[in-house]
Amino acid sequence: MASSSAGLVTGLTAAALATIGVLGYQASATAPADLGRTQASSTPAPGASKAPRDRRHPNALPAGSGRGERVVYSVDGDRVWLVGAGNKVERTFKVTPSTVDPVPGTYAVTSRSNRVTGSDGIPVEHVVRFTSVEGVVIGFSAAVDGSTAKPKPGERTGGIRETRADGDAMWQFATIGQRVVVVP
Length: 184
Fold this sequence. Notes:
5-stranded mixed sheet; L,D-transpeptidase catalytic domain-like; L,D-transpeptidase; 9 strands
């Protein structure tokens, strides 16, 4: 009798772990559209509207993009900065923008996926999502084939494409809750 009870407990434990795994996967793959908004409205980051780039150093971190650890994304400059402790830029790189731009402001990483199919049908990896605009989820990703082609005109996509190496760096840096500052 003891061995049949042990088998029942083992079976129930395995079923419970499988259910938790499925729920965890579903939670990491989806998030409500407004999750991660750290502001009640999409107001620019302090000083963002007055954030000219240093003409002598076009890759310089935009003034007014905040302080502390954060991802900074320039919509007009198609560039990302990964900013670590002490306001030190750890990495900066060019990106290919999506067709739907996030509004300048401060957000947080809401979900991540290691590998999925992008809204444009291209397999992508290291997806880091931080907001949505009119039902289009916005986030950073790298195409598995390494391509960074611009989306087709008329497509409503939210994938800001990086190279695979830059996508790896973003994946390591931008965990759930990491601040993302969008500047013009």
